[in-house]
Automatic annotation (TrEMBL):
Enzyme class: transferase
SUPFAM superfamilies noted in UniProt: ApbE-like
Keywords: FAD, Flavoprotein, Magnesium, Metal-binding, Transferase
The EC number(s) this enzyme carries: 2.7.1.180
UniProt KW Magnesium keyword: yes
Annotated catalysed reactions: L-threonyl-[protein] + FAD = FMN-L-threonyl-[protein] + AMP + H(+)
GO molecular function: metal ion binding; transferase activity
Source lineage: Bacteria, Bacillati, Bacillota, Bacilli, Lactobacillales
InterPro entries the UniProt entry points to: ApbE (IPR024932), ApbE-like_sf (IPR003374)
Gene behind the chain: apbE
Protein's name in the database: FAD:protein FMN transferase
Natural source organism: Streptococcus equi subsp. zooepidemicus
Names of required cofactors: Mg(2+)
Length: 247
């Protein structure tokens, strides 16, 4: 049995494909898990588990679910790796720009400079014994947008594999994870199209054929802030606080 689902969540379109004897029930469970994970990891839901940490920045540690602790631990490690363009403490800057939201704006230079000073990953204090996280400076905030979708896809696929699927595809807005044999293709592979930047949806620069792998892309064409003749995209440079320069 094949079940497919499309869900608008996490600021993107999520596509699910499941080949299993109980595909419909599994697809329903995936919806429930997506809602749970969205509430756990979202930096755009003021009541989320992640935002509980951000609200207590500079005040006190917050005990968190093990999934959130694990992902922030991974994020801190890779934010401190050199050279790295990842920094999960860019939350103050992400919220200053708000690119991709209706209230997006160009922050002034003083705001960017001030908020850059709140983006030191060393100031994330992890207490594994207590399972707590503390942000040392008031005004700091964590944004897991660069990591959460991939982590969630892994969690969802692990559930599906344990629950006995034949094959599945999870697409969390450019984070694609596939498992098993695709019966709709003669070679058993899943075909993942790479969107041609600045072209209509469905125009591909290439197609990657995979199974039991993840394919992840991120581009500057989906979320932009247009001011006059200048476009600002959502991928921020952790060293300047402005959208990263690209050719």
């Amino acid at each position: 049995m094949i079940a497919t689902d499309q869900i608008k969540m996490m600021g993107t379109i999520i596509d699910i494909y499941i080949d299993s004897s109980k595909a419909k029930q599994q697809a329903a469970t995936i919806r429930e898990l997506l809602t749970l994970y969205n509430h756990r990891f979202s930096a755009n839901d003021d009541s989320s588990e992640l935002m509980a940490i951000n609200h207590m920045a500079g005040i006190q540690p917050v005990r968190v679910h093990s999934d959130l602790f694990d992902l922030i631990s991974i994020g801190k490690e890779h934010s401190l790796a050199y050279p790295s363009n990842l920094n999960i403490t860019l939350g103050p800057l992400v919220q200053s720009w708000r690119i991709g939201f209706s209230d997006a704006k160009l922050p002034d230079e003083a705001t960017i400079d001030r908020r850059l000073r709140l983006t030191n990953p060393n100031h994330i204090i992890l207490d594994q014994g207590l399972g707590s996280i503390f942000l040392k400076e008031k005004g700091m905030s964590i944004d897991l947008g660069a990591l959460a979708k991939g982590y969630i896809a892994d969690k969802l696929m692990a559930f599906l594999i344990k629950d006995g699927i034949t094959a599945a595809l999870i697409n969390l807005g450019g984070n694609v994870l596939v498992h098993g044999t695709n019966k709709q293709r003669h070679n058993g592979l899943f075909y993942v199209g790479i969107q041609q930047p600045n072209q209509k949806r469905g125009q591909h620069v290439g197609v990657i054929k995979v199974n039991n792998k993840s394919v992840v892309t991120s581009g500057i064409g989906e979320r932009q802030l247009q001011i006059g003749d200048k476009a600002y995209h959502h991928l921020l440079d952790p060293y300047t606080g402005y959208p990263i320069k690209t050719n």
